[in-house]
Structures are given as C-alpha cells and as structure tokens.
Amino acid sequence: MPTIMKNSPPLLGQSATQIAATRLRLRITAAAETIVRSGHPWLFADSIHELNRPGQAGELAVIYDRKDKFLAVGLFDPDSPIRVRLLHAGKPQTIDAAWWQTRLAQALARRAGLFDGTTTGYRLIHGESDGWPGLVLDRYDLTLVLKIYTAAWLPRLDDIVALLQEKIPCARIVLRLSRNIQTAAERRAPPRHDGQLVFSELAGMVLSAPVIFSENGIRFEADVVRGQKTGFFLDQRENRAEVETLSRGRKVLNAFSFSGGFSVYAARGGARSVTDLDISTHALESAKRNVALNQNFPGVAACRHETVQADTFEWLPTGTEQFDLIVLDPPSLAKRAAEREGAIHAYERLNSLGIARLARGGILVAGSCSAHVSAPEFFDAVRRAATDSGRKFSELKTLSHPPDHPATFKEAEYLKVIYLKFTA
Q: Could you tell me the domains of the chain?
C-alpha cells in the first residue's frame, strides 16, 4: 500500500497552502518515473508509493520525482488499475479552460484536410494518442458520439460538452460509457433510457432512428445508441476502400460482417455477389439496410447480396462453396494479456478455415483488433496458416491504423490487416 507523504513543493503558480488544500500529490517508483519520462500515458496503482491523501475520481493528480520536482499531472481514478491517466509530463503547466481548449484544437488540427465532403464519419479524438486519455469522440454527420472508458471523466462531463458545443458544429452529442464505469455513472446520475445509463442525449434533439453518414460517398447507418464501439467501425475505412479495388468480378464473403461495411464497398467495386456472415440478426438486418441505402451505385444495384446467420468458426468448415475474396475481421480474440497465446492459435485456425474456402486466385483479407496480439505475431499466424495450406500465395500488403486513429504508444497499436493472394 502507498504511504501518505507530508510535504511537497509549490506547483502551477500556487502557494504551498493552496496546494495542500487542493492538490492530490503522488510519488512513484523509480521504474515508473522512467516510464513516465518516456511518454507513456498510464500510471498503474502498484507504481505509486506515496500520496498525500486519498484521491477522488476525476481530480488532478500531480506527480513528483524523487527530487521533489514536478514530473507529470493526470486524471486520478481510485477504482481503476490504471490509477492515473496522464495529461502532461515535463515542465509544469496550468490545467485550466484555456489548456483544454488548446488540447481540443490540437486534436481537430490533426484531422484538418484528411476528409472531403464525401466523408462525414470519422474520429475527432482518439484517446491517449490525442492527449485525452480514456476518451474518444466520433463524428457521424451532425451527431457527435462521446465514449469514455474511465470514471475520471464523469465529473468533467458538463465542461467537456460545453467545450465541444462551442468548437464543433453539431445537432446532438451522445454519451456512451464502457461497461466498467456504468455503475460509477449511475451513482453520479439517475439511470436513463430503459433503466440503463448506456447513453445520454447530452445536447440536441433526441434520436429516433440510426444516424446516416457518408464514407467516401457511400451511405451507412450507425446505431450510435446501442451499436458496437460508437456505432460503426470507423477504423476500417482504408481497408474497406482497398477491398473495393480488389472486388471486381469476384464472389465475396464478408465474415464477422457486422453491418456490412466491407460488403457495400465490394459491391460498388463490381463484385458479382457478396455474402454477409454474422452471428447477430441485428447486424445482418443493418447490413441489408446499408445495401438498400446505396442502390444508386450501379455496382451495388447489380450485386447479389445474401446474409447468413451463423458462428463463423462453425460455418466455415461445414461447407464447400468457394469464394474469390474473403474478409476475416473478427472482434478481439484477446481481451486481456492472459488470452494472448490462445488468440494467436485461434487466428491461425480461423485463417486456415478461410483459406480452405478460397478459390484459385482468391484473396484473403485477414484483420485483428486485439491489442494484446502484436502485428508481427498476428501476421506470422496468418502466414503460417497460408504456408500450412500447401497453396502458393503472395503477400500483397499490410495496413494498420488510419490517420484519424493515431497510435502513439504500444498498447494503442491494436489494428492490423494483411492481404494475401493465392495463385494455386
């Protein structure tokens, strides 16, 4: 257990008396000091060996080094293994309204020029990598979806919403909470919407239907209230566009299809047929609606679209139908580090099953969103599956995070996709 420290030097332009009354002060282990100085944004509970008092969720925690000099400042969360999510390290800064405005402006500036009017769905804030640890903000046309992963943000929601409304034109802001903090949120505010604080209409008109947005001119619906992530997998935009370029004349299988994003792109690209495979009826119905939204494209109108409700791991080995392009983009197979080895074996098995259903000249698009499985580990698993198939293949390319989803530290590097073409 960390001990309570007695005194710390003045900080951020305040007197020692003011600091003693208002600031939570921490000292950390030597190893943790090194990690903080390297730029890592997380401070775990077992790295703290002194604090001046118990901290409350959301207050600023000021971290000192062994020489009692300012090291960093971050948001404190007493109930999370990640005890402090760092906002700033280095020279002292005042964390005030102007500071937050600058931090938001920096995130928005990183997206400037990335998208034209044909794309109205993308990420505006990507958590730690944009300096907003444990918080993401996505845009779906005029709807903003704010998702938070730590209770440290709950006391600051009103200020955040006011800032977003001031700086980003929108019709509404929807709040999404990760499951681990819903209980904390319910303690702070009464449950809403069918008895669950899954989301709140923080500003603007209440939603009565999914939000419609555009991506490279294709229209999609996003269930920003109850859908996965914030309503759509915006991080796969570049891979969907790549699949479009590879699909002409091909018979396409989109496994773990969710709402059919890859499928609509493939159809617009000239695929002769597309099959969406997912275990969720809700997801497949959404895929049908997304196809219907894009009948203005000749390729989509001409493409035969089918849906199959099944577990992909169970469905692939039971049939003999061959496909010319298969997308295997499952949900994370490793939710925690202890599941890493099992996930690597599962990825290898899954892609072996997929390769067995590929026709001669077929293309495999294999993706992983498991942060606990590194890109080299995942790519090697797919390559082993390809080699063990005994078929000749070539590697076309690999892709990772799109520019609106930057990854500035190891744990943020979750997305990786590899493209293989089988010539035999």
A: 3-89 (2.30.130.10), 97-204 (3.30.750.80), 233-422 (3.40.50.150)
